[in-house]
């Protein structure tokens, strides 16, 4: 049985490298690629049959990977997504899983882990890269019921775009929200993180390693 895969990453060289890696295995075939979330969503909606597994970078330009995973899950609760990111912080892992990803592997992990993770996600099983599993376990022990700082995946995505220098209007256009909604989310983020100013918000995010 061949597992059809879609790669979503804004770097063509990265996509080519992982396409070659996956297709070294007879049971894996990359049938689609996208450089951003919007084109990935459009392709996925029009493809028949659809890829069995989507491997999604979280740091995409414009709409990020968290938002993409959430929208895919809204359209098809059975869609199987694997987050594949440079971020090693438990916050990113937790947010990706909350958004609907079945697994999370870092780009610094052994290539064999990506292959293993694709197969596990295809089988409907949760999987974490070995280099982040310990940190995630520690986080869950310390915060068994709470999400990181109480932020939802949508709030975390708005925070990412704010820190990237996007204006509320740009964020609204990217996420198909009203400007008023973006302002409300911005306020909720600062309230939850107890950061009265955008400067304090940015400093906290950098200190926590949530941004590049």
TrEMBL record:
Residue span, Response regulatory domain: 4-122
InterPro entries: CheY-like_superfamily, NreC/VraR/RcsB-like_REC, Sig_transdc_resp-reg_C-effctor, Sig_transdc_resp-reg_receiver, Tscrpt_reg_LuxR_C, WalR-like
Organism: Sphaerotilus natans subsp. natans DSM 6575
Keywords: DNA-binding, Phosphoprotein
Residues carrying 4-aspartylphosphate: 57
MF term (GO), any: DNA binding
Keyword Hydrolase among UniProt keywords: no
Boundaries of every HTH luxR-type domain copy: 144-209
Protein name per Swiss-Prot or TrEMBL: Two-component response regulator
One BP term from GO: regulation of DNA-templated transcription
